[in-house]
Amino acid sequence: MKDELALMKQVKSELEKALKEMTTERDNLQSNIEEQSKSIVELKEKCANLETAVKESKNSDKRSKNDMNSRLIGPALPPWLLEEKKPDPNEIEKLNNTDPATLRTRVIDLEGKVHELKQLVTYREDVILRIYQEIQKKSSKLEASEVERSSLSAQVGILKKELNALRGSGRRSEVGYPPEIEIEIERLRGKRDREYQRRKRAEAEMDEMEAELNEMKEKVKKMEDELAEIANAPKPVIHAGDPVDKARIAELQTVVNQLRLDNESKRSELFDLRSRFEEKSAMLESLSNDIKAKERQVVDLTTELTNKSSQLEQTIKELESVRLRAIRGGVETERWQMDLNSVRTSNRFLSQQTNELRLRLTTTEEQLNEARKNLSVLKNRGGETSALNGHTDPELVKEVAELKSQLGNAKETITNLEGAESELSELKTKYDALIVQLKSVKQNTSVNNSTDSERLSQLLSDLKKEQESSAASAERVSQLTKQLAELETTLSETRQRLNGVMSENRRNDLEHAAGCQDAPISPPTKRARRSTRSSSNPTSQDCTSCTELKRQVDSLESDLAEANTKIESSVFELQELRTKLIAASEEASKLRLEITSLHEKLAAGNTSLKKLRHTAYAFLEDTSDPVLGEQLRQQLTTVE
């Protein structure tokens, strides 16, 4: 049996060790699984982030592609450039035989076409630069995505190694990957394949964009070649002919030169007018911005006025509540005075009762002294067991002992009554001190009430003044709003006038150009600049009105600042009054507590005195009852 028990113990210890090892292995496996789950969660988050980034890049690619298409579309090429014209061999002769007016119009058309071509070239250059920048951005994004893909592939390799290690550790139980990890691996593989396909699509889109760029470059080169051909077109050859033709050609050349000079002068005048118009429009915009700012200031000031009026109304309500509190405080002081009067009457009644009790105690003391004398006489005659009429009476001895005890009790009652008298004197002194304190409190409250009433009257007068000032400021604000409306109308009128002046100037320029074409040609003369006094006068009036408005707004702001200072001072004074009232209410509550405690003490004294009176009456009526003596002794102890 002993051997079997030892074997069982060994087996048990081995099993426990095996269990401990299994538990440690289980804990390690659980920790590894938790780490793997955490890493899988992190990979999920990274994959989700990559998916969102790829989606955003795809959307941005689509947007950029659409934007580039729209940019590449841009302004359409002019139809005259797309038309394929065959060169005319007789075009030079036609030009020699044409009128100067048609030549002039032809030259103007050619200049406009050259300007359009220059604009197209600059636009195409901007488009090419933007496309190049977008290609650089896409290449940087692709590089970043490749870096992220490489990091993800490295993480996947690490996870594979860890999973292989876990698989090797799990071969004991002949179990492969857990189903959750296999599902996650398949999902990650699918994501990797999708990412690869998306990258291929992005590369294909980039190739398409490069092809479109090359096409655009070819188109731009063609346009540049066409422009060069147009610029390097052969000039019309002037054949040596009649002198009349030569003179006509010279006249035509002079006319063309004069027209160019006139056109340049008109252009300079137009540029001057445009600059003036832009200056005036900038001035008008600045004025409109100033007026809008002033309108906002006026709106802010109106809101401040409404807030201040609401604050003033709240202060008025608070002042009324303070006045009501003062009235309630007066009523409470009157009630306290009534309570004090009632306490005085009760004290008088108690003093009368104590005097009566003193008289009765003096009578009882006299009776006790007589009893003592009788007892001393009896002791001298025969002691405690002396014979009365020749017989010893034990009842008489008992009565004598009872009388002695009653005498001792009476002495104790006398001492207790003396202590009660001392307590009553102390209560009287406290009562007198409380009366003095109440008088001082009444005086202080009366003084404070008078000062508070004066201050309330002052605050009410200040509030009335503030209300009047707020009404005046509201009127001023309404006037300012009216002035702003008038200024807006004047601004609109000035804008209409400026537009009319500009339209008249353009009309005059067109009429002048038509007259120059019809009339005989003369050398260009500088035109006198038109006076802009008609447009500057309303603007000067607007400036003066704006300065007046600024002054009025500044004065209104100063008035508001003064009103704010006054309101702040009144609020500060109200807070001081509130603190004083709170202190007075606290003192009143303390006095109430003291008075209630005095009432309780007096009530307890009254009850104890009544009990003493009843017991004393009973003791005086029946001095032979020991129970009454004990009750009187207990009551005296309670009174103490």
Automatic annotation (TrEMBL):
Residues 53-68 have a biased composition (Basic and acidic residues). The keyword Acetylation does not apply. GO terms for cellular component: cytoplasm; myosin filament; myosin II complex. Residues 53-78, 511-545 are annotated as: Disordered. Transmembrane segments: none annotated. Keywords: Coiled coil. Gene3D superfamilies: 1.10.287.1490. The keyword Nucleus does not apply. GO terms for molecular function: actin filament binding; microfilament motor activity. Residues 185-322, 354-444, 477-504, 546-594 form a coiled coil. PANTHER family: MYOSIN HEAVY CHAIN, NON-MUSCLE. This is Uncharacterized protein. It comes from Hymenolepis diminuta. The lineage of its organism: Eukaryota, Metazoa, Spiralia, Lophotrochozoa, Platyhelminthes.
